[in-house]
Amino acid sequence: MLFRSVFIVFLVISTDSSEQESIRRCVRAIGSCLLAPESTEGPYYWNSTVRNDITEGKAGVPFRLTVTVLDTATCSPLSDALVDIWHCDAEGIYSHYIASSLGQNTRQTDNSTFFRGQQVTNKQGIAVFNTIYPGWYRGRATHIHVKVHVDASLTNINGAIYAKGGHVSYTGQIFFNDTLTDEVAKRSPYTSHQIRRVRNNEDGIYSRSKGSTTIVPVQFLTANGFNGAVKGDITLGINPNTVSTESGRPGGRPPPPPPGR
Q: What does pLDDT average to over the chain?
């Protein structure tokens, strides 16, 4: 399989603007960008709306995800890009595809929208989402899907902001450290899972897409560890002039859950 690659840098975002600018200067000083592959879109993509909080009140460990987008031609922040994420809930269910997520042999959709959202990057190339630490389902390691749209325009329809036009320059997946996920798995509502969780090195998509390069570093926001909130910061470098080869590629349906799920 031929993968088009993107530049990945992990940064801890500081509230000190001078420190942030020092980090950005170091990034720009790199003579050549490190590259990492894209990954399949998966079967559960659905166009979402522009919003910061995508939880819709669903339970889970609160997780603030910060995505910084860089233009690999200059290693500079890419503003006005549309970061588009989606992931399953704490019990492995995707909104809009609840029946299929439950293992039913159907592509019937529904109107639910939890854990889907888009944000436009600011002048520093940053988009922030408030979500939860994702759950997992049979056959896949814990992950978040992400696309980056370029040159999209926004329109307000009955108070909801939708993106249209432009093109997708990046399609990929963000993964998590297995040891951290082990700890999350001990907490409600994640404990409701009746399946064996797939670890990163057992996930074929993780292996084929070099997922170790897109493991998001996670930090605790309180002294309570996973009993409080956590955050993750990841920087994705893209070529905004190209079109993703993985956009629109479902990559197959995950296997159904075992009986009794």
A: 84
